[in-house]
Amino acid sequence: MGSYLSLSGSHIPKIFWATTPAYVPLKQRNGQDPAEKTSLRALLQSHCPSLFQKFRPAWWLSSGHLQTGYAVVGDFSKVDKVVYDRTLLELKDGGTLGLDFTPPASERVLDDETPIIVALHGLTGGSHESYVRAILAPAVTPVAEGGLGYRGVVMNFRGCAGVPLSSPQLYSAGHTDDVRQAIMYLTYKYPKAPILGVGFSLGANVLTRYIAEEGDACRLISGCALGCPWNLSKNGHLLHDHWLQRHVYSKGMGSNLKRLTSKHLKSIAKFPDSPLAQTIPELLSRNPILLVEFDSLVTRVAGGSSPPFPFPTADAYYVWASTHHILQDIHIPFLAINSEDDPIVQEVPTDAIGSKWVTIATTTGGGHLGWFEATGSFSGEVKRWVRKPVLEWMKATTEQITLDHIESKPLVVIDGWITEPGKEHLGCRVIGEGGRVEGVEGQESLLAGL
């Protein structure tokens, strides 16, 4: 059971902590006592003021359905523009990841010690998503121009956002080895740079699992999870059991996954005996297809490496991949933000945090990855409120505190593969540059914002 803080006013986020707070050393400044520490609660209260102030959704986006719908159909092409340089990583199992770096080298060269934000996108998204750019655009803006001046890196999952599918394995909410290898690469390339993680929806679940699995050896200095689905089994059943959720959200996400998989039919055909290839005939015959149906047909058998895949049922996969029950294994500063009117994630583990490193904040409005508030003008324009607490959190955990209990393992290069002692079955290497990435070219057939 955790403690709970609610300030007066229904529009102020609710903050949930474990009963016992974590204490971390402050960074030394001008002769400051190196032994001085602060609690994460005090850090949050002093350096993340947005979490303790009102968030009022735009009046014309007053419900979770409207907020979520606007995240999908809104035109964000002219806001938060971000341009990337793509690096393609080959993994030992034959898979390919696309790492999109911003700012591109042609625009600005950063110091190798510049903090790095690793972003994990949602279900079928990528670096082009508006919710990703809403965080990275100000985060990578120079300090002199009001930004943080950090480096942003989006890890595009296998087959997403134009990344080739080069193995008969997809990705899932529970498979963490891909982000593990991406962070190995970033640590090897920038050994002096602090690395932070931010995840959105499915990517938030992957990030949470990765951080919990790494424990005291985590290579990140902090994590932030937005719209995390937590209890996949319970939230999946809630999504399926309500008519609107089933016919709008579940059908929309299932169809997105089908379209994404269909983009790679030629690549999948190169592995005719694989479990993934064997699902294709039935997958193509399903129209429409619900999320749980896609997971039952495809994800449970091809959403990660073996073991633990394949799973006997989609629900067995959901139970394994859930994150609500592993928060006690998180040992770095971790902030999660969910909306109480999220139509996709209706169950948030605010009463079972179990880790002194974890803070969960909930807002009364915001939908799924929306959090749109009015700009204050009469133009009808909106901005994402959530960027404010996320940027404050990143700045605070990077620049105010240090972690003295984390002991990450050294990295080694074996036969050209960057790997970690004890995990030699994992490894990555650069296989090429994917060029300049800008806009949503090639992603028009997929629903954005999920």
- For the record, the CATH class of the largest domain is Alpha Beta
**Dominant shape:** globular
- Can you count the helices? 12
Helix and strand string, N-terminal first?
Answer: EEEEHHEEEHEHEHEHHHHHHEEEEHEEE
**CATH homologous superfamily placement of the largest domain:** Alpha/Beta hydrolase fold, catalytic domain
DSSP, total strands: 17
- Quote the CATH topology of the largest domain: Rossmann fold
Q: Strand order, main sheet: write it out.
A: 1-2-12-11-10-9-7-8-6-5-17
Binned strand content: 15-25%
Features:
12 helices, 11-stranded mixed sheet, Rossmann fold, AB-hydrolase YheT, alpha/beta, single chain, about 450 residues, 17 strands
Describe this structure in words.
- The chain is α/β, with parallel strands linked by helices and 450 residues long.
- It folds into 2 domains: 2-231 and 322-437, Rossmann fold; 236-321, no CATH class.
- Helices cover 30% and strands 19% of the residues.
- The chain contains 12 helices and 17 strands.
- The strands form 4 sheets. The protein has an 11-stranded mixed β-sheet, sandwiched between helices.
- The radius of gyration is 21 Å and the shape is globular.
- The model has no long low-confidence stretch (mean pLDDT 93).
Short description:
It is built from twelve helices and 17 strands. The strands form four sheets. The chain has an eleven-stranded mixed sheet, sandwiched between helices. Strands 3-4 form a two-stranded antiparallel sheet. Strands 13-14 form a two-stranded antiparallel sheet.
